[in-house]
Fold these 3 entries.
Entry 1:
Amino acid sequence: MMQRPPTIKDLARALNISVSTVSRALRNATDINPETRQAVLKLAKEMEYEPNFIAQSLVKKQTHIIGVVVPSIDSNYFSEALSGMTDCAIEQNYHLMICQSNENEVLENKSIRKLLSCNIDGLLISVSLQTKSDNVIKEAQKKHVPVVMFDRIIPGADCTKVIVNEYEGALKAVEHLIKKGCKRIAHIGGPKDLSVSENRKKGYLDALAKHKIPVREELIAHCKSFEEDAIGAIRKVMNAKPRPDAIFFINDLSAITAIEYIRRKGLRIPEDIKIVGFNNDKVSNVVEPALTTVMQPGYEVGKLALGVLIDEIESKSTERQLFELRTTLVTRKSSR
Amino acid sequence: MMQRPPTIKDLARALNISVSTVSRALRNATDINPETRQAVLKLAKEMEYEPNFIAQSLVKKQTHIIGVVVPSIDSNYFSEALSGMTDCAIEQNYHLMICQSNENEVLENKSIRKLLSCNIDGLLISVSLQTKSDNVIKEAQKKHVPVVMFDRIIPGADCTKVIVNEYEGALKAVEHLIKKGCKRIAHIGGPKDLSVSENRKKGYLDALAKHKIPVREELIAHCKSFEEDAIGAIRKVMNAKPRPDAIFFINDLSAITAIEYIRRKGLRIPEDIKIVGFNNDKVSNVVEPALTTVMQPGYEVGKLALGVLIDEIESKSTERQLFELRTTLVTRKSSR
DNA sequence: CTGAAAGCGCTTACAG
DNA sequence: CTGAAAGCGCTTACAG
């Protein structure tokens, strides 16, 4: 019994040839006798030889490891993106090292530095809410590690970016309500100063403008955080006179919170008031009424971001690109 | 300007000492002159020296990389576990390589083998629904890679396991309903033959037995898949005569699906019928009525599983252990 | 306390 | 087509 896994040395000895020849046979080089090659491959299989990835990395100076940093793994959207990346990685023979910043810039920087010290071939990052500076990104690039930002980007950063056009998603959602005949469309937004909140609100405002519907400030309210205190914002817009005939929400959970509030007011959804969420959470199809919502292609974002990064790694291209994926409006009963 | 990152060779040359001495100074060895040590450390800082992780791995024959395989990254429960592992990993100076099997045993095996060829120091796995054999686990162990299974385990496998006592969670949930005075408690189960389904159903049955409540088959129904076709199962149990006064669901989504069905029947929750879910999805606190549910400590499972694996890696212990974490019953309006 | 040497497992010019 | 040699960046006995 062999205690340790076999190496090319073991193969070479067993076949009475040199390690260089074994190495060449293994990696499909052209200048190798087909018979020698077959013999090596056969023995390699028998001995269950596996190339030592670490040793290869050291000499080739590339690890095929890609570092990924997201704000939180445990979030609907990011876990979808990670899923896309992971599937793509295994296909393309890359490996992912995933870290989360927990929305903390210090931890984010620490994670990136740790990843860099692992000699990652590339970095995929979606920045924390706190992150303003792209210094660590520059650090990576100085080490010739290509960087691709996705979803939560730093607009000024000098790297390729993959984002979702949430603005257009919001615009489509609100135009859908307008086509349904709604005239007094309210908006429950997310925390101010966040690009997601701003993009979606801008879509809302532009849809109104496009259809010459005046903006009424009393129909707009913001949640301080994403999931809590939605009820305060809902109460505010529902108290407007005349009351809204539709509400476009920053996310599905706040929309679902509103369903019961609206029911208590004696109003029917969608007859008296239509509602639209954002995200297409699984539950949006389970609640009653089923929720119309804007689906973001998280899985595709992940897949594309990784694909683009691999292209940069392999072609050593330094061209910066901006990829924008589109949302899909999923219409259900809540806006029929 | 230095084109490539500095190595210990560069440090040695600059200080006119040998690489062995630099190496010792860097890693805190005892047999080193404190002054030499200071000088090396100072220069290392100035030159922004970072030890080459790959080179270290090659000589030390350990990578500090842990391979993780889950059925799907993009699932509430597993993303929580991954989150716990990730936080734990960075603290303990390990790195995670995460793969997903997409519930496919072939892909699972492929992922494990890829991870092994990366010389992972340990393997953390939650197996796919298809997986029956622990062959690949044995393969890993033959290579002296410790394995810890979590959540979805192969009962017979010879390795340390970290699981959640779902049985007890279900038992507590049903006893809670019994204490509330319910006499005709129904159960909507998950796909048959799945250990999750079986464990939770057993908790239900044992709670009834413990309180001498007879089991009525017409109050038990199974969903074929987790999220779809819940409505058929709900209809079945709601048609039992006399009708149930409580339902214990396999998960929150099926419970939420039932809310509207029950409302349409003209029944009130919780007055006429109480309901309890499983998982504590975010939405369970947003729906009306807010859902009583069983919380599984996914984050803690991840943290513990990784901690235990690291212990095995570092102490080279081969003792097999079984860790069982407990659920928490979160009582809300739907069962008051 | 320090240095020279060997080695981790592989790849890749270079000579033949 | 094949082999000897050098090297990737580090660690670790071994001598001194």
Entry 2:
Amino acid sequence: MGDEIPVGLARLWRLPAESRLGRPAALDVDQVVQAAVALADRDGLAGVTLGKIAKELGVTSMSLYRYVGSKEELLVLMGDAATGPAPELPAGPGGWRAALHAWAYALRAVHARHAWLPHLPISGPPSGPNAISWMDACLTALRDTALDWGAKVGILTLLSGYVRSSSQLRVDMAEGRRESGLDQPQVEQEYGRALAGLVDAERFPEVAALFTSGLFEQPPADDPDQADFDVGLDLILDGVAAAISAAARA
Amino acid sequence: MGDEIPVGLARLWRLPAESRLGRPAALDVDQVVQAAVALADRDGLAGVTLGKIAKELGVTSMSLYRYVGSKEELLVLMGDAATGPAPELPAGPGGWRAALHAWAYALRAVHARHAWLPHLPISGPPSGPNAISWMDACLTALRDTALDWGAKVGILTLLSGYVRSSSQLRVDMAEGRRESGLDQPQVEQEYGRALAGLVDAERFPEVAALFTSGLFEQPPADDPDQADFDVGLDLILDGVAAAISAAARA
DNA sequence: CGACTTTGTTTACGCCATATAGTTTAGGGC
DNA sequence: GCCCTAAACTATATGGCGTAAACAAAGTCG
């Protein structure tokens, strides 16, 4: 029969092994993944090495291959583990808009907790249990609308992609500030000033105008990325609103 | 004076070197970057190696460090080179919506031509001349609106992030199909079926319903990703429309 | 108790980016 | 026309990486 479950999926879903023969395992997939996640939280994605994970767990690197098929698969496991289950969303009064808003904020918070997460290479559609739970939460927020499945999936993709890429940007810019040693706004201004000098007002009139607008000079608010994030999110939700009322009319 | 231009920026903008002393260079930055781009187009990002680039150009790998500061910097240069200059956008009748639509399509086409491009690690805000030209094109499309700079930048970020992440997804899924050897829809269905078996209808009612909806079973259209892309894009543009009319009212 | 099965280790390989030190090559000043 | 010197380029080496293959160890089952 075709009930073959790919071994990668089996590990993602923590399907228990059946055989009880042979030497018992000293670890399990979760311990390996947790160690890898801890390492990524501390040293970033580039700091995650089979050797370091193994050392952390007191085994040799090769023994890790008893638990994960490859480093690439380990990254997938790390992604699902670090994402964690979706939160409970406000069901009642606010309707879909409040729920999607909360969903996006929660995902963004997860990315803040694991800065490497938005940088993980995507390998296909969501397939881990935690990713599925986020998917379910988003679809639940849209349940009482007239949207068809295609539209719902499109919104899900758009929203998660937006949160992901905006988190990516935030992390990258923070890292750019840090690694240059200087304090935060100094580098930004110096870099911006150098760049502004390169931008020719005839070739790039709008960008030149943007640079002279002072938008990048003003002392940033508590969390400038936060404000940018809200702008884009509200814009998306406005688009969703339009799609919903269009679907209701049809 | 503070007219120091970071050396990385100088290379991005192809600022000519001043000194004419010493042994003349056999290559230039462009040749290195073009070779790297060609390699990435052929073998993917992971196939880009200093050694291979050097062999392609008939030099040793170490000599490449005369042209780029590091591999990371080379990736940035590759990104700007492969992106190329922004296209001319329809200026007249359609207004901002047609222009943004064309902009997004053009960027998506670039990603199709260089599948590795959306996977490049982002390192900060756009700073290469080509990236700036795309930025300028997008801002030009929004010039005759009442939006303030913050909103325009937000829209730019959202739109480019959307195109990027949807291209990422498209490439990853295509690669997932290819590397498993089987033909395209077969793997998709098998994987989907296995996944559907793991999704418990009580734990994930919406996702389970989605799986039984047949959305993933139907023979895909000419380009299914295309349709998904349009859904998200129209949604964003609806959101932009809302923002524009709100700004006009204020 | 011995066969078998599974886990973990040892060892080794090829590849990578890059530091360091030395060598080649041409133009500039005389 | 010839050396000096600065720049381009090469040779060599290092430490790290993921992982293939063969082997040793540690349990269960008959």
Entry 3:
Amino acid sequence: MERHKDKKKKEKENEADTSKWLLLDNQLCFRLYSASKALTSAYDPMLKPLDLTYPQYLAMMVLWEKDDISVGEIGERLNLDSGTLSPLLKKLEAKNILVRARSATDERMVTIKLTTKGHDLKKKVLKVPTQMICRIDLNEKEIADLSKRLDFLMSNLVKTAED
Amino acid sequence: MERHKDKKKKEKENEADTSKWLLLDNQLCFRLYSASKALTSAYDPMLKPLDLTYPQYLAMMVLWEKDDISVGEIGERLNLDSGTLSPLLKKLEAKNILVRARSATDERMVTIKLTTKGHDLKKKVLKVPTQMICRIDLNEKEIADLSKRLDFLMSNLVKTAED
DNA sequence: TGAAATTAAGTTGTGTACAATATGTTGGCG
DNA sequence: CGCCAACATATTGTACACAACTTAATTTCA
């Protein structure tokens, strides 16, 4: 595949070089897309007994770390906009896991507070990340390493988005 | 963070050890979820002039590699079921990019064939992967490396899903 | 051969995602 | 003070994703 790389041929290879990146198996992006879906569906059976979807679980993780914050703050943390979060948080409110209320000081904002049920849910969910780490079957160093690469990739995408 | 690891304390750390994995910033899965979304939204402006979404682009990549295949074969390649593919392929048919037709030999199957417009679209799309590689800003080795890790992760998830 | 199991695709219902827009609130600023 | 740009959230519309179910065709095998 990497033979015959003398300069005369290199230009001729350009077209082939370009279209080899169009092969699905060569696409990093497709792997990320697939891996992300696979992870979500791996979470689902663990979260189902807790009546949570994966995005709902993410929102809860934000709230377990710090309660009494605005919709916008959650969105900043998860990279989700109000179009996604508004209905999601309404569903969590319908399950009595949290309460939404207009802020008294700034009525543009909606403040999210966990209920007792919402706080208690954290105990039940503690085993989920551990189970997931087992299934991923990577050690702590490998996870950190992969995380670092993904962070680098993300920052490049964000950086070049400002054009 | 890694100090004080004598055996007496290790057991006491268990609970803290467990809940540290519940922190969003420690979650590999959240990074994958975010990276996947970021990549899709990076594709969108490139694909918009071609009137394709990212999942539609993936389906087209499969078809550019091998035409005249069934819905199921596309789904196997992309890990998508008929619930996702049926409407997606109908949209591509409405754009005159492909044609869907019941197979003559097995009428349960629907065979997908690219139209001339569908084949021609490949030329216009050739620059997309190259542009994306620039934005990702990883060299060929780093991409291969990251891909390998994601493949490993995926195979672990699939493997442990058979329980 | 013919009923039952299997298979392929489509449909329905729920839940994200996000662009674009709407609505109400707040903070300037002339 | 009053107007207006900026802001926070909600709503609408489009497009996945997938579980569960339906429909129709094929295969299996008693």
